[in-house]
Design goal:
about 210 residues; alpha+beta; Arc Repressor Mutant, subunit A; 2 domains
Length: about 210
């Protein structure tokens, strides 16, 4: 049965994590406006291939890892997942793990949207851990720096405490906290910061479902 929805309600990161845990095989199609389209071929939970096309002339805009990284930066596209037919397989051109592609996409999103969150927080901003369902797992393998910041965030009152505990430069801690927030491991105390603004459409490449 096909799965449909919006990335506003369920992000591409969430979808890829769910597909990885359930070892899904099928095609995930993304759609935004009527100009561009994107498709990811999923094989046993892993991204096997990806492409972004221009609907107007049917030309390929991005393929492979680059297409995945671009699509991870989307926030307001619609999606449709169609499970594979029996014995259906997909050629593989992507060999990196899903978690690497996700983290690289989030890193680039942070770079392209520098004023998205960092001016809204400071060293005195308070952090909180995000409650995760009992027994839940994740396909993401955080690197050493991310685990170090995450572990210290659990016992810290403010970002300044994390900087002091880790010894990392302030700019690096802000970047690591931004990625951990995107992965929904930590969040900011709501009474300490205003809601973040969505990315401006010009900051991301539009995508649409390719058939």
């Amino acid at each position: 049965m096909a799965l449909k929805g919006s990335l506003i309600d369920m992000s591409l990161v969430d979808l890829l994590q769910a597909f990885g845990m359930s070892a899904k095989t099928g095609k995930l199609m993304l759609e935004k406006s009527d100009k561009y389209g994107g498709m990811l071929w999923i094989s046993n939970g892993l991204i096997a291939n990806a492409a972004i096309v221009d609907f107007k002339n049917r030309a390929t805009v991005h393929t492979g890892e680059g297409a995945v990284i671009e699509m991870i930066q989307w926030e307001d596209a619609t999606f449709r997942f169609v499970p594979a037919l029996p014995n259906e397989t997909y050629p593989r051109s992507i060999n990196r793990a899903n978690e690497w592609l996700i983290l690289e996409g989030l890193r680039r999103r942070d770079e392209h949207a520098g004023k998205r969150i960092y001016p809204k927080i400071g060293l005195d901003t308070r952090l909180r851990m995000v409650a995760r369902p009992s027994g839940s797992t994740t396909t993401l393998n955080l690197n050493h720096e991310e685990w170090h910041v995450l572990n210290n965030s659990a016992n810290a009152n403010t970002i300044a405490d994390v900087v002091a505990a880790t010894g990392y430069p302030e700019s690096e801690v802000f970047g690591l906290i931004g990625r951990l927030m995107a992965l929904r491991f930590i969040d900011l105390e709501p009474d300490e910061v205003q809601p973040t603004e969505p990315l401006h459409p010009e900051m991301v490449t539009p995508f649409v479902a390719a058939n």
